[in-house]
Structures are given as structure tokens and as C-alpha cells.
From TrEMBL:
Species the sequence originates in: Candidatus Vogelbacteria bacterium CG10_big_fil_rev_8_21_14_0_10_51_16
SUPFAM superfamilies: P-loop containing nucleoside triphosphate hydrolases (SSF52540), Winged helix' DNA-binding domain (SSF46785)
Domain AAA+ ATPase: 17-133
Protein name: ATPase
Domain of life: Bacteria
């Protein structure tokens, strides 16, 4: 099944801006497939995988003339897995400055691999993109609205990785991805001295999706320091495994403004960590799982329409809560997830923000919130 990626049009449009395009994203989300689709539309494009030793050698501490000779007459060159080339940022800067008509796309699996070596050399010379797993909108455009709604529960449970969607055995496929790729980039870093603790941390975070997370409690459970916990959380963020959702604070005395929530970029990966693929009707965490799915889908939609927003949750000390709040400029949008529908209590929110309505998100209304 081929699913057209919405970000493709943005990448194509950006090729004319005279900058190096950087495509970040977790492993197996479809970066290679995407750049090969882009290359099909560009005459004289060339794909180069930096996993190949001869390609790495051709771009490692070479002159611009030697690199151009290797590229040949291509008007667009894609360097896949670019982080495999030492000092790749300097290499890309040299190519960009020497051959301004040469269009370049560089991909990498995680921001600590590619971004850390590129940010300074390519300051003002790059356009970054992040490729998420398949969005619900992309899925629905491929299989049809009716079929997408019928399969929505499976997507919440198994996630949106391309190979998982296509697999006849999604439980096994998402577990394979989790075991083979989820921690691959994190665990090979020299700064990670306790690899097992990283996996244990990820599982603890998976169990706390939808709840506020105490770093101190995590440190006590794992018997490591608070700074180490924070550094490992940051690495999991950079590897596109998790993201943090801070509390919305407006200096009101009854608001919770200290603890954050942590969600997963893919609910299937989260469930694989817990080895739990039960149907929603049989789960204790069904509401939190659907909440995670919606928030990620909303982030994907924001990327598609090109409107950045800061995102939060909101909770009072008395326990009143709104699952997800977006802030763009001076405007707020509030969302409350209710898996099976029914009434939601928004009195505390409306007392604090009387001008901001709360949109209820259910399985039936999910698609409407992504338009």
C-alpha cells in the first residue's frame, strides 16, 4: 500500500529556496521512501545512501571539486543517513557555498545525530523538516473515510508506522520495530552509560501516559540521579520516541504549573513497550491511549497546514482538567478527549477562560478536528 505523504509538496516547494533541506524523523517512518518519491519528480536527481562505505568516503574530508565529481551532473542530490558522514555539517556547507545551484536533501534518524553536527555550519543555509509516522488524514486519503473510521481502533492500538499499517500481523511488526529500532540511536551514544535504564525509563513513561510525571519519583524507582533521568528523557525526545506536554499557567493560584505530561509519538510503539495490544473495550488505559493518539494527530495536522502552536494541558489543584490546549499568538484552543462521548465538565475552564470554548474529541469527531 502506497500512502502519499502530505509533506512531500512542502519539500518540493522548498527546493527552489536555495537552501539545504534537512529531513529528520525516527527510523522506519518513511524518510527514504519520501525522498525517492521526490526524486521521481526532479530531472537528473541522484540518491546516495551514506550507509555505503564508498559514499561515506566520497564526502569525508574531501574537496568540493572531488565531491562534485562524485555527484556528477545531478541537479539534486539526496544524502540519506547523512549523519554517517563525519563532520557532515561542514561538508554540506562547502557544497552549498561552492555550488549554489546544486539542490541538496540530507536525512537523518534523530536530531542529536544530524542537527548537532549541522546547526552551526549551516546557520541560515538550511530548512528543517520532521517526518512523523503516517497521519490519520494521509491514511484516510488512501483507504477512504469510511474504511479509515472502521480501522481507527486498530490504528490507535497499533500505531501509524508504514510497515505496521501494511502488515497482516501488526502485533509482531510493531514489536519488531520497537525491539530493532526504537532505542538504536540512543543506546549507541557514549553519554548513555546505563542502556537498560533507558529502556526501563521508557516503559515507566509508557505506563504514565496521560498522567503528570514526577522526575523525582522516576529517579527513586530507577535508583539513578534526577539529572540523569532528565538527560535520558531529553535523548528519548531527540530520538522522536516521546515528547513533553507542559501545564498551561496564567499565574492563577489554583493552577498546576509544575509537573509535565509525557506522550509517545506513536501509540503502537508505546503499546509495544508494554506488550499490550488489547482492544480498547478491554483496556484500563483506553482513554489515555486515545488522548495520546489525538494529540499526536493534531501535531501532524499543524505541521501540514504550516501553523505552529505551543501546546499544553490544563489542570487545577482541585483536579479539574482539560486534556490539550493550543496557544497561537494570543488565541487559545481547548480540547477534551472522551473516547465514548458523553458529557464533559468544563465549568472550571470556563470560569478561568470564559471566551474559549472546549471542543470534545471522540472517535466519531476525530477527523473533524484535523481539518
Amino acid at each position: 500500500m502506497h500512502i502519499e505523504r502530505s509533506i512531500k509538496s512542502q519539500v518540493l516547494a522548498s527546493l527552489s529556496h536555495g537552501k539545504v533541506l534537512l529531513l529528520y524523523g525516527a527510523r522506519q517512518v518513511g524518510k527514504t521512501t519520501l525522498v525517492k518519491e521526490v526524486l521521481k519528480t526532479i530531472p537528473f536527481g541522484r540518491y546516495l545512501s551514506c550507509d555505503e562505505p564508498d559514499v561515506r568516503d566520497a564526502f569525508t574530508r574531501q574537496s568540493s571539486t572531488a565531491m562534485k565529481a562524485f555527484i556528477g551532473t545531478a541537479s539534486l542530490v539526496v544524502l540519506d543517513e547523512a549523519q554517517r558522514v563525519p563532520d557532515i555539517g561542514i561538508t554540506l556547507k562547502l557544497l552549498h557555498d561552492t555550488y549554489p545551484d546544486l539542490r541538496i536533501i540530507a536525512t537523518g534518524p534523530s536530531s542529536f545525530d544530524l542537527a548537532n553536527s549541522i546547526v552551526e555550519p549551516l546557520t541560515g543555509r538550511n530548512i528543517p523538516f520532521t517526518l512523523f509516522p503516517i497521519s490519520y488524514g494521509e491514511f484516510a486519503s488512501t483507504v477512504g473515510e469510511i474504511e479509515a473510521r472502521r480501522l481507527l481502533e486498530h490504528r490507535v492500538i497499533h500505531g501509524m508506522y508504514p510497515s505496521v499499517i501494511a502488515s497482516p500481523a501488526p502485533d509482531q511488526e510493531v514489536k519488531r520495530l520497537c525491539n530493532d529500532y526504537l532505542f538504536k540511536d540512543v543506546l549507541r551514544l557514549d553519554t548513555v552509560r546505563k542502556p537498560l535504564v533507558v529502556e526501563q525509563l521508557a516503559r515507566l513513561l509508557a505506563m504514565q501516559v496521560g498522567s503528570e510525571v514526577s522526575v523525582n519519583e522516576l529517579a527513586q524507582k530507577l535508583e539513578i540521579s534526577r539529572p540523569t533521568i532528565l538527560s535520558y528523557i531529553r535523548l528519548l525526545e531527540q530520538a522522536f520516541v516521546i515528547f513533553r506536554l507542559p501545564p498551561l499557567g496564567r499565574n492563577r493560584r489554583n493552577e498546576i504549573t509544575r509537573l509535565e505530561k509525557i506522550y509517545f509519538y506513536d501509540t503502537g510503539m508505546r503499546n509495544a513497550l508494554l506488550d499490550d495490544f488489547k482492544l480498547l473495550s478491554l483496556r484500563q488505559d483506553a482513554g489515555a491511549l486515545f488522548e495520546n493518539f489525538f494529540i499526536v494527530e493534531r501535531m501532524k495536522w499543524r505541521q501540514l497546514v504550516g501553523t505552529d502552536a505551543r501546546h499544553y494541558f490544563w489542570r487545577t489543584k482541585e483536579g479539574s482538567e482539560i486534556d490539550y490546549v493550543e496557544e497561537r499568538g494570543n488565541e487559545l484552543q481547548a480540547f477534551e478527549c472522551k473516547l465514548g462521548g458523553g458529557n464533559i465538565n468544563t465549568r472550571a475552564w470556563h470560569n478561568a477562560f470564559p471566551e474559549v470554548p472546549v471542543t470534545q474529541i471522540t472517535m466519531e469527531t476525530l477527523k473533524q478536528s484535523l481539518k
